[in-house]
Every structure is written in C-alpha cells, then in structure tokens.
Specification:
The complex is a heterotrimer of chains A (125), B (495) and C (131).
Chain A lengths: L4 H6 L1 H19 L3 H23 L22 H32 L4 H10 L1
Helix pairs in contact in A: 2-3, 3-4
Chain B lengths: L1 H4 L1 H22 L4 H24 L4 E4 L10 E4 L1 H28 L5 H20 L3 H20 L4 H32 L4 H11 L4 H19 L8 H7 L2 H27 L1 H6 L2 H22 L3 H22 L2 H32 L10 H4 L1 H15 L5 H15 L4 H26 L15 H19 L2 H14 L2
Antiparallel strand pairs in B: 1-2
Chain C lengths: L3 H23 L8 H19 L10 H17 L23 H27 L1
Helix pairs in contact in C: 1-2, 2-4, 3-4
Classes of the chains: A mainly alpha (125), B mainly alpha (495), C mainly alpha (131).
C-alpha cells in the first residue's frame, strides 16, 4: 500500500497528538517512580486535548463570540470541542490532585515513592 | 407535572445534592450522616421504582437537559436495561447503606466516616448518570467521577494496602478513561455528533468509508471500558482494590461498579456500532477468547487464594467473564443471559462480601481456613453465604443456574457448543473453591463441641444479607418477570 | 524559599497576575477565556506568593468563598429556571461585546471564577499541610 505523506503533513496536529498520547502511555508503563506515572497520565491527556482542539479548529477562524461589529461572513471555529476540553481539564486536575494525595500518604507509610521498592517492602511484610 | 417530566434528572441530581449536604454534615454532625444517607438513597430508590413502573408500561423515557433537543443538547434515555440497572443500583445501595450504620465505625477511622458517605453518594449519582445518559461526553465525565469516587471508597480505610491498591486503581482507571476519551474523539471526528443515537445513525452511513478509524475506535472503546470493567488481561487492579477495601466498599465495587461499565460497553457495541461492525472487526471473537480466559484463569487464581475477600475478588474476575461471554455470543439468549447475570451476580456478590464483613465483625476471621464451626456460631449469615455459593456454582433453583442455562442456549444458537463444556468446567471449578468453605462451616468439628446460637451482629447488618440471599432464590425460581422485562431491550440490541 | 531576587520581583508580579486574572474573569462575556481560565490565573497569582513567601490563608473560613459561589450559582439557577444562562434577558445589560454585555452570564462567570480559584488553592494548601 502506498502511503501518501502529504496527508500527514497537511494534518500534522493529529499526528503530533497521537505521538504525545503514545509517549504518555509509554511513560505510565515504563517509569517506576509513581510521580512520573502521574505525569504520564497528564501527558496522555494533553495529547488527547490537542487532538480535540485540532478537531474543532478552522484555518483562519476566530473565537466564536457574538459581536454585531463582525461581518456576516466571518468564520468561527467550532466551540464545542473547546468546551468539552474545559471539562476534560477539570477532570484531569481532580484526578491528579487525588493521585498526589495518595502518593503523599504512601510516602508516609513506606518512605519511598519508587514502585518496585514499595512492592518489595510489602512482600517482606 | 414537573417531577414526572424531569424524573431522570432529579434522580441523578438528588444523590449529587445529597453528597454535598453530606460533605457539610461531615464537618458539623458526623453521627447523622448514615441516617441522612439512607434517606437520600431511599428517595432514589422510590424514584427508580416509579421509573421501572413507567418503562414497564411501554414508555421509553427521554429527558433533554435544559430543553435542548439532540443533536445539540445532552439527552438522557432510560430504556428497559437502564431502568433495571437504576433499580438494581439504588436498591443495592439502600441495602448497603443500612449495613454501613454499624460496619463503618468498625472498619474505617472515625475522622473520615463523614466523607465516606460523601463519596458513597457521589459514586451512586455518577453511576446512575452513566446508565441513564445517551451522550458520549457525558458518559466520559460520569466514568471519571465514578472512578474517583470508587478510588476514594477504597482509600477510605487509610491503611498501607488499601492506599496502594487505590493508587493503582486510580492510575489504571484514568488511563482507561484517556483511551475512552480518544475513542470519543474519533467518534466525533467521523460522525460529527456526540449523541449516541445520532452517532449510530451516522456510523451506519460512513462505516465503509473509514475502516481504519472504526477499527482503532472499537479497540480503544474495548481497552478503555474493558480496563475499568476488569476484562481478563486487564483485571490486575481488581483483586487488590476489592480485597483491601472496607466490606461495604467491596460489595459496591464488586457487585455494581464493574457492571455499569459493562452496560456502557454493551450499548457501544450493539447500539452504536451495530452487530455487523462488532463481528466484522473481529472484536467479538476477541471478546469471546478473553471471556473464556477470564472464566478459566479467574477460577484458577481464586482457588489458590487464602484470604477470603481475595478469593471472592478473583471470583468476580471469573463472573465478569460470564457476562462478556454472554453478549459476545451475540444471540438473543446470550445477551439475555448477560443482562440477567449482571443482576444476579450483583445479588450474589453483595451477599457474599457483606457476609465476609459480618464474619470479620463478629469473629475477626479473614482466612478461608478458619471457617470451622461458623455454621453454628452465626447460622443466618452462613445460610445466606451457602445460598450465594450454591448459586455461584450453578445449582438449579438458584439464580446462577438461570444464566448458565441461558449462556448454554445462546452458544447452541450461535452454533458453538464448545462453550457448554467451558460452562460445565467452570461450574466444577467454582464448586472446588466455594464448597470447601460451606463444608468446613457445618461439618468439620473442631477441638470443642459447638452449640447452635444466634448471630451476635446487629440486625441492621443481618437484614441486607438476608434480603440479597432471598433475591438470589427469587431470581432462581421466578425468573419470568425480569426475563420478559429485559426481552424488549434484547430485541432492540439485535435490531 | 529564601531568595532575595525572587522576593523582590514576585512581590510585584503577583499583583499583575492577580489583576490579569480578574480582567479575564470580568471580560468572560466579551473575549476568549472566562471564569475557568481567569480563576486559574488568579489562583496561580496567589500560589506564586505562597511559594515565594511561604504564607498561606490558614483561617477557618478558607472554604467558605467556594461554598458561597456554589450557593449563588445554584440559587440563580433555581430562581431563573431554564432562562438562567440565556444572555440579555435579565439583569444589567450593556451593549454586546462590552464589559456588561452578558447580563446574568457575567455574574455566573464571576462565581465560577471564584469557585475555580479557591478550589485550586484549597487543594494545594491541603496537599502541603498533609506533608
């Protein structure tokens, strides 16, 4: 199958967002530090947010605010995706805050936030 | 009438407002929280009963948030499956909140007990929202809120193990939610809608145009919701989280939380993608393989556990496999069996986990080797435990038999009779890890003679256990009512 | 943090950030941004002050602005019903595109901004205190 690279160049925000998503996923899977895992979740979500914003964007469009001074033919971007991402950011923030609180508590119990150390200490009793 | 028209909205917002009020009382009067929770959940239960009555009359309830019609506004739709799930959720939460009055002060530190009820109601509200909603982005928000609430329910114990399990659950469930969000982005990209009905209508037109995106999308839905529903290779968070949580939380997580994700995934597969895409992308065969593996390996893992709650948690992995196997078969009886098993397994697991909590409350025993003489010390609890265990194995006259029979019929309908052998084998495996407990409780005599005496636990803890056990028997003997009620939902799923 | 340069610089930067946060909140109906973004900026301004000078609000009423904002929003929604967020029907309305062009929406925006700012601040204060 012949891949048309010009499509990739034309739609590069999607491409970049998928790369960021994969990096975040990799970060969750491979990092041993719990804080870095939480950062990985945030990177992953940022990739998705970029995807949504790229979805709603129109080249040359302006912010969709009603203003009688604007000409009738003005192009507005799609506001729906931006609002959705606002909700997504709030949810991501609360998840991060909760995870950080749990990590603080784990650090009080075990004295470390390195996942293999915690597992070893738990198996030793 | 205002209440009549806005009933789904009031049902969900009612619990949410209850959660906020509980957060206020947690700072002010902590002792009132359990009773206020019972009032709030009881209100939800009454509303759900009315909704089931309305849906049974042949009405499918649509609610448009703020009066905006789809495809612009958020729509809530309650069909037969949704009404049944709402009734199941609020009923089980009512029983568990009655159980909580005496169980919670024993299991979690008093300083967080008020906040526990906040998370309790928050989880109930978002789960009911997830069942009722017909909008993809609303689904995502509800999924995340349920994840946070369920993690808080696990972490409330404040011990080493439960904190670690809660963190692992939180990281994995937010990863799953990220996959879900990406899948929703693909759905919006190719269809331009977020309302499930409109996405389904548009998807039928464009599915030949974007084969790759549909493939990626259905995979992401499977990973995202399957991770939260603990489908077999993605179940790694479940045993720790379910076994280290307080007993009422374990009952909620095991019996109810994983089920609402399964309801969502069934809707996505059958109502949004449709049966053709579900089969055509080979996702159905993958589900069948993973469900079979879940049944076998979940039972094997459960067999080697020594901690009672851990054994019950691995048993949940196996039972989730039944539900996925049922709707993976894709025939009328299979989907019917999956829906019924969601209800029956909720009864069984709530009964088993609450019994485990009651055993810990009275005797302090946690291990499966310490059941000697329990049948004489706490007869009512052990009778309920025995009923639920026999139902897990699939003995006729108990609820579990109906679903096993339904899955067997479904696999015959799908020309795939090998699954009957799997079901028989898994029934034997279930027997191998549930029957020794029952045998030990009644027939193994310890060093001293046991005298038959009444359970020494409060009646408010005994009542939910008895009601769930009665529910298991009721579903086993009179399954016709739920069967005919869910039949219409099955017909719509296979359209 | 005990750094002389940071103390001198951020004493003024904090002010600018807080004022900019209020600007974004108040112009929510006329420009991109609004309650959420403005509230975040506001919280960041206060947080810089906390990080540099190590002083935080320890009072008992720390969570009350949050509750008050939720209460106001809820009351508004109950009183106004479905028309709550429809602009230019009630309240002090100016010309569209100006500061008061949003009607009730501007007020709701202000509540949301307060809510967001104080939620972020409270969560971070709680995390720090737990250490």
């Amino acid at each position: 199958m012949k891949i048309d690279f010009s499509i990739l160049l034309l739609n590069y925000p999607y491409f970049v967002s998928v790369i960021i998503f994969c990096l975040g996923c990799l970060c969750i899977l491979t990092q041993h530090n719990l804080l870095k895992k939480v950062i990985g979740i945030n990177i992953m979500q940022s990739g998705i947010f970029l995807f949504y914003i790229a979805l709603g964007n129109i080249k040359g469009g302006i912010a969709p605010i009603f203003d009688p001074a604007m000409p009738e033919a003005a192009i507005y971007i799609n506001p729906l995706t931006s609002t959705l991402i606002l909700t997504g950011i709030v949810v991501g923030f609360s998840v991060t805050a909760f995870a950080l609180a749990l990590i603080v508590k784990l650090h009080q119990f075990y004295g470390t936030i390195h996942a293999p150390h915690i597992i070893r200490m738990r198996s030793l009793g | 009438m205002y209440l009549w028209e806005n009933m789904p909205f009031i049902l969900i917002i009612g619990s949410l407002v209850g959660a906020f009020i509980m957060a206020m009382f947690a700072r002010w009067k902590r002792d009132w929280c359990p009773y206020l929770t019972i009032i709030s959940v009881g209100f939800s239960f009454i509303l759900s009963c009315i909704l089931v009555y309305r849906v049974a009359g042949g009405e499918i309830i649509h609610y448009y948030a703020g009066g905006w019609r789809p495809p612009w506004g958020i729509e809530m739709m309650i069909d037969e499956l949704g009404a049944m799930m709402l009734l199941l959720l609020s009923g089980s939460f009512l029983l568990i909140s009655i159980y909580c009055i005496y169980a919670i002060p024993r299991e979690i530190p008093p300083s967080v007990s008020g906040w526990y009820y906040t998370c309790f109601l928050l989880t109930l509200s978002s789960m009911m929202g997830m069942v009722a909603t017909n909008d993809f982005f609303n689904l995502f928000v509800m999924v995340e809120v349920t994840g946070i609430g369920a993690c808080a329910l696990v972490a409330a114990k404040g011990e080493k193990l439960s904190t670690e399990a809660a963190l692992r659950y939180l990281i994995l469930s937010s990863t799953g939610a990220a996959f879900l969000l990406f899948a929703i982005a693909f759905a919006y990209q190719i269809t331009g809608n977020l309302n499930m009905t409109y996405v389904a209508a548009e998807m039928a037109k464009v599915k030949d145009q974007f084969p790759v995106i549909i493939w990626v999308m259905i995979s992401f839905f499977t990973i995202g919701l399957g991770l939260k529903a603990a489908l077999f290779p993605l179940h790694i968070w479940l045993p720790d989280a379910h076994s280290s949580a307080p007993s009422p939380s374990s009952a909620i997580l095991s019996g109810l939380v994983v089920k609402v994700y399964i309801v969502s995934i069934m809707r996505v597969y059958f109502l949004v993608f449709g049966f053709d895409v579900f089969t055509g992308t080979y996702m159905r065969y993958l589900i069948l393989v993973m469900a079979s593996a879940a049944i076998l390996f979940g039972s094997f893992f459960a067999f080697v556990q020594v901690n009672l709650k851990r054994r019950l948690a691995y048993s949940t992995v196996a039972q989730i496999g039944y539900i996925f196997l049922g709707f993976g078969l894709g025939t009328a009886w299979g989907i019917m069996a999956a829906m019924l098993h969601i209800i029956i397994h909720a009864f069984m697991k709530v009964c088993l986990f609450l019994s485990a909590g009651a055993i810990y409350y009275q005797t302090g025993r946690k291990k499966v080797t310490e059941f000697t003489g329990l049948g004489y010390q706490m007869p009512v609890t052990m009778v309920a435990f025995t009923i639920a265990s026999l139902s897990m194995i699939g003995i006729p006259l108990f609820g579990g038999f109906i679903t096993k029979y339904g899955i067997a019929l479904g696999s015959l309908e799908a020309n795939n009779p090998y699954f009957i052998a799997l079901i028989v084998l898994s029934g034997l495996l279930n027997a191998s890890y549930y029957l020794p407990l029952v045998w030990q409780a009644y027939f193994v005599s310890g060093p001293k003679k046991f005298k038959l005496e009444m359970d020494a636990i409060p009646f408010s803890m005994l009542l939910p256990i008895m009601i769930t056990a009665a529910g298991v028997i009721y579903m086993g003997i009179f399954p016709n009512g739920p069967l005919s009620f869910l039949g219409k939902a099955v017909a719509r799923f296979l359209l | 943090m005990d750094d002389y340069i940071a103390k001198v610089v951020f004493r003024y930067v904090t002010l600018v950030v807080v004022i900019y946060g209020f600007y974004v909140i108040l112009h929510g109906s006329a420009s991109p941004g609004g309650g959420f973004a403005g509230g975040t900026i506001l919280a960041m301004g206060v947080l810089i002050y906390f990080l540099v000078f190590g002083e935080q609000w320890r009072g008992k009423l720390r969570e009350s602005p949050m509750d008050l904002a939720v209460l106001l929003l809820g009351l508004g929604a109950v009183v106004e019903g479905i028309k709550f967020l429809v602009p230019q029907t009630h309240g002090p309305v100016g010309a569209p595109g100006t500061l008061f062009g949003g009607g009730w929406v501007s007020l709701a925006n202000f509540c949301i901004g307060t809510l967001v700012a104080f939620s972020i601040l409270n969560i971070i204060y709680l995390l720090v205190e737990e250490e």
